[in-house]
C-alpha cells in the first residue's frame, strides 16, 4: 500500500518538475536559445531530485514518541530542596520552610521542532490540566503518539490561561472547578500554615535537547522536568518568598523562576 502511494508521488514529482523546467525553457527570450545539453541536464536534475524524494520517504517508518513529566527532578535534589515519598517537595532557606503538596498547570500546544527545518510536529493541541508528580517519579503525559521519522531538536510547549482561548468552553466543561483566569495553582504550607497560590502565567517554551532526538525506527521518549522547588526564591536566591502573601512581593520574580525551571531530556539521558 505504501509503495503504491510513493509510486504515485514519484510520478507526480517528475511530472511537476519537468513541467516547471520546460516552462522556464519556454520563457527564454527569442534569439538567445538554449542548447539540448542544458535541457538534458535539467531533466536529469528533476529525475535525481525525485529519486531522493522517494528514497527519503521509503527509508523511514512511522515511529512512536512518549512524553513523561516530573515536578521534582532527582538531579536537583539537595539539602534545601528534597522530594518526599509522600509526594511533596520541601524547601528551606535556613529560617523558613516551604512544603509544596500539589502543583497543577494548564498546557496547550505541545510540539516537536525539527532539527533541519522550521517545521514542527504537533503532539498535543490541548488544553490539558496537568498535575505534576512531586515524589521524583515520572508520570506519562501521553504515550505512543505516531510521528514522522526524523531528527528533532526541541520540545515546544505553551502554558496559558484558558480565558479567551478558542478552547475555553471545552476546558471549562472538562474542568468546571478551575479558574480560567489562571494557568498555575500551587498548594502547600509555609512555616506550617496552609496556602493556595495561583499565577496567570502565559508563555511559550522552546526547550532544546542536549542532543537531537533521533526518531527513525521503533519508539522514542522525552522527559519534561519542571523543578517546582525553585519557584518561590527571591531574585538573589537567598530567601524564600511567602506564597501566603503574594501582594508582599513582585510576582514577576516567581514568573521568571517558573520560566527557568523547565528542561527537556531524551529519556535515555540521566538527570544528573
% residues in beta strands: 35-45%
Q: Which structural class is indicated by helix and strand composition?
A: alpha+beta
List the secondary-structure elements in sequence, H or E.
HHEEEEEEEEHEEEEHE
Number of domains: 2
Which blocks of ≥5 consecutive residues have pLDDT under 50?
Answer: 1-60, 75-81
Shape: globular
The main β sheet shows up as: 9 strands, antiparallel
Percent in helix: 10-25%
Question: What's the SSE blueprint?
Answer:
Layout: H1 2-26, H2 36-59, E1 63-70, E2 81-83, E3 89-92, E4 97-114, E5 120-124, E6 128-131, E7 139-147, E8 150-159, H3 168-174, E9 184-190, E10 193-199, E11 203-215, E12 219-226, H4 251-260, E13 262-266
Parallel strand pairs: 1-12
Antiparallel strand pairs: 1-7, 2-3, 3-4, 4-5, 4-6, 4-8, 4-9, 8-11, 9-10, 12-13
Helix pairs in contact: 1-2
What does it look like?
The chain has 272 residues and is of the alpha+beta class. The protein folds into 2 domains: 58 residues; 204 residues. The protein is 24% helix and 37% strand. The chain is built from 4 helices and 13 strands. Strands 2, 3, 4, 5, 6, 8, 9, 10 and 11 form a 9-stranded antiparallel beta sheet that branches. The two termini are 45 Å apart.
Amino acid at each position: 500500500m505504501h509503495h503504491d502511494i510513493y509510486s504515485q508521488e514519484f510520478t507526480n514529482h517528475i511530472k511537476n518538475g519537468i513541467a516547471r523546467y520546460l516552462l522556464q525553457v519556454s520563457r527564454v527570450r527569442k534569439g538567445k536559445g538554449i542548447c539540448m545539453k542544458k535541457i538534458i541536464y535539467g531533466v536529469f536534475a528533476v529525475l535525481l531530485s525525485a529519486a531522493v524524494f522517494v528514497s527519503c520517504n521509503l527509508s523511514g517508518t512511522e515511529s512512536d514518541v512518549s512524553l513523561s513529566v516530573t515536578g521534582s527532578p532527582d538531579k536537583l535534589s539537595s539539602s534545601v530542596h528534597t522530594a518526599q515519598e509522600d509526594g511533596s517537595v520541601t524547601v528551606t532557606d535556613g529560617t523558613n520552610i516551604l512544603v509544596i503538596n500539589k502543583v497543577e498547570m494548564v498546557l496547550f500546544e505541545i510540539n516537536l521542532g525539527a532539527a533541519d527545518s522550521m517545521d514542527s510536529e504537533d503532539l498535543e493541541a490541548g488544553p490539558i490540566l496537568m498535575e505534576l508528580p512531586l515524589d521524583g517519579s515520572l508520570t506519562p503525559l501521553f504515550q505512543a503518539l505516531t510521528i514522522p521519522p526524523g531528527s528533532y531538536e526541541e520540545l515546544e510547549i505553551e502554558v496559558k490561561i484558558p480565558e479567551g482561548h478558542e478552547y475555553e468552553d471545552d476546558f471549562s466543561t472538562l474542568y468546571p472547578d478551575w479558574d480560567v483566569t489562571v494557568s498555575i495553582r500551587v498548594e502547600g504550607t509555609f512555616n506550617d500554615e496552609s496556602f493556595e497560590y495561583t499565577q496567570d502565567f502565559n508563555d511559550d517554551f522552546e526547550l532544546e535537547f542536549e542532543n537531537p532526538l533521533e526518531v527513525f525506527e521503533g519508539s522514542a521518549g522525552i522527559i519534561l522536568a519542571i523543578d517546582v522547588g525553585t519557584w518561590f526564591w527571591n531574585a538573589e536566591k537567598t530567601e524564600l518568598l511567602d506564597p501566603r502573601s503574594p501582594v508582599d512581593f513582585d510576582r514577576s520574580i516567581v514568573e521568571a523562576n517558573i520560566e527557568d525551571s523547565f528542561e527537556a531530556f531524551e529519556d535515555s539521558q540521566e538527570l544528573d
